[in-house]
Input
Amino acid sequence: MKKLMFLLSLTIITITVCYIAHAEVIITDGLVSYWSFDRDTIKGRTVQDEWGKNDATIVGDPKFQSGRVNQGLKLDEGCA
Output
């Protein structure tokens, strides 16, 4: 029984640590603008600034694609 309780406790701790490790952290000290590029913050070619009042305009033809976490926005390679 002690072994089962130990394994259950270890599993719960591991899941909690993994969840916390993937939490999104946004540093706001000195932040002027923040664009997440999430689908719900893009209306047409305008990207909503989630922190300030500096909405951005998308130039080119970026595409949504699979990312490490959810989706990402692939920008034109020639714009750099």
